[in-house]
Specification:
The protein is mostly helical. Helix content is 78%, strand content 0%. It contains two helices and no strands. The longest helix has 50 residues, at 35-84. The radius of gyration is 21 Å and the shape is rod-shaped.
């Protein structure tokens, strides 16, 4: 896959997840009046929030890695061009 296609896919993912609520703004809607009924909902919401946070970190790392690879490629191409001359 070409770098431009990868960048487009990552940009799409970033746009899609940038609209997701931040951890401090997530609200849990009470399922019932009993506390025992809220525990599974809270546990599920916390698990989902952790997954979203992990996904955000993964996306940020992938963007960082692509940028580092791009810089390294430019540097190596420059070295090859200077050796050809």
């Amino acid at each position: 896959m070409e770098i431009t296609k990868i960048e487009e896919k990552i940009n799409e993912l970033v746009k899609e997840f940038s609209g997701a609520p931040r951890p401090n703004t997530v609200r849990i809607i009470p399922v019932g009046k009993k506390q025992t009924q809220n525990k599974p909902a809270k546990k599920t919401a916390n698990s989902l929030q952790e997954s979203l946070n992990y996904l955000r970190v993964c996306i940020k790392y992938q963007i960082f890695d692509i940028e580092a690879t791009r810089r390294e490629n430019k540097y190596l191409r420059k070295m090859l061009d200077s050796k050809k001359s």
